[in-house]
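Below is how a single chain appears once it has passed through the pipeline. First comes the sequence as given, then the structure the pipeline wrote out for it. We keep one example in the README because the format questions we get most often are answered faster by looking than by reading.
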Amino acid sequence: MKIDRIERGAVHQTISHVNLHYRSQEDGPIAARLLELLGLTRSQEMDLPTGGTFYRFTVHSNDVNRADGIIYLSPLPSATAALFEAIGDKLRIGAPDEHPAVAVYRAAQATDPEFNFHVGFLVDSLDAIEERLAELQRLERTDPAFGGRLKILVNRALPGDPVIDARLDASPLYAGVDRYTYGRNGVQAFVETDIIVDGPLAEGLVIELDYVFPGHAAHILSVSEITR
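Resulting structure:
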């Protein structure tokens, strides 16, 4: 019997995991605490024979064993650290004759936190984002473990919806902000930190929290617009 075609049902696909690293063993517990402050649930912690700790986090606080929505956190592998060090030496990072591309890259990153690789989480409560960012701002001011290691930047929704505009005008986080999202009916909050390392210079990672106002088919995560 010849089979010309096999009928297949729809396949459901999600993001299973993202793997992140911290640079030093001392940064492990601080990095883990940061991810919890950003709303993730720690579900595993394991000491590694090579030093440092392996962590598993999930976005599913009510179902921690789910096989998707996972963030793994572990020490930066030594081979990767050696590569980053070689890149830094070659570019003369921090030296008077630092390669000019480094300053250009850093300026672009400072202007737009979405410029490079970053990790975003959708949060279903704007109040929760405001509370989490307020706590991070407090820790950056008062806790030596976080002092000087967190940079926070936010984008508010494009103006035009009176209900959304009023809510953001009253927000402790978004009131007075004149940076706007690449889209409508949602907001973004970015936390840039060197506690977790990434990027071509291994200088840090940007973690993004998003909120979409309900009742809008077109929003920041469905339709992008050039707004700046």
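The mean pLDDT is 93.

See the next section for the split statistics.
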